[in-house]
Predict the structure.
Amino acid sequence: MTHLLPHPDPMPLREVLRGLRHTMRRSRRALRETVSADALPGPAALIAGPVLDGLDTLAGSMDAAGTDLAKRLLGGEAHRVPGFEALTADPGQEEAFAEATYAALRGALHRMGDGDAFVSEAAARRAYAAVVRTGRSAEDAVLTAADLALALIVGEAVRDVAAGPALRVAVDRIAPVAAVAAVLWLLADREGADADGALDAATDIAVALSDEIAPAAGARDRTRLARLLGEFASHV
Amino acid sequence: MSEEAGIDLLPATGEPVHVAARRLRWFRTAFRGYLDHLEGELGCTFDLDEGRLAAAFVAWLRAVEAQRPADPAARKTYFEFAAGLMLRELVKTMPVRTGTAPTRAESDSAAAFWPEGYACTMFCLTVARAALRQEFAEDAGPAPEALDLRNWWSFRENAREDPTISVAFLDLFMGHEPDWSTPGLLSARLRREIAKLPEGRVGR
């Protein structure tokens, strides 16, 4: 009799690799911004130049590997993301939810001006586990969506956002606005829509609503967030 | 631009135009496509700020929802009014900037005088015409007033102080009698229309 071992959950490994990728990306940017071999005295520059070049190459390779990995793991999944009802009607869809939310948060962050912020798929899973319960009625969809958005915010699914001129909202608003954008995208009718276009639209709506999202998220006000999500879910 | 050209430029959709227009992804694609066409026609370039466009869209949705009439008989008036509110929010937010000035527009045309305003106005007229054609089998091209440059001088000047006047100018360009005093109120427009009905038709 053959005993099959259960497949190990690949998510923790993904999370670690993404953490490494994130660190390397940030480090590479920091090095470029703070250290210039040209500014060093001659002997130091002779040593530092190749070291920095090597680090840059290493970081670049890691970045490329990480990106390739992400693409392979996540490639095309946005087209297969089930509707919000299917994801949250009953527990058991945490993997699909977390993968979709990860992809949506990455896309939203990129559109908001910091594609290198860290996104935690594990935090998305925890948010799902904390919010989705058996027996929830369909009428509660927007409240569930609001709870998920808050759980993503509280659980720090988005971390280490870098301030910069490219950001479309204040740095301390990026995480809540991205969380609302991702949940709005999941909640929206995406039938027949190209996934990127729908996610960009959800993100742009969330950015336009950032003055309302930020205080609602800060106050952990699920009712206000649910009202916003319900108001705009059919307009993505 | 030919009368057909504008409507044909709108993205295909399986939904009624008035429903599709209330989805940002269609709205943005339609607006971008319209600008692309105008760039070729006018010989200019436009820069579109999609963030500003989204802000205008969100404000427009809220404005039209706030004045949605309960009476189904007011639907056509509401559609026309909604187009005016769309123009108001675009003019207020102005998501378009002219990169290079038009080289193929007549020097005394609205397009040469105010390219961004012209683009926003003609887009709103086009969406309104598409929706009205679909829902009410009514198709009227832009009124002759839309060709009179003096109207555009007035429009640009007044809209700077009060973007809501855009609603009245869109009415003018659609061939309707504008409400210059309360252009942003659907209820005032409906009262005016009821007052114009022949006696005995009110309340039917």
Observations:
- The two ends of chain B are 41 Å apart (CA to CA).
- Chain B has ten helices and two strands.
- The first helix of chain B runs from residue 3 to 9.
- The interface with chain A takes residues 14, 22-25, 28-29, 50-51, 53-55, 57-58, 61 of chain B (CB under 8 Å).
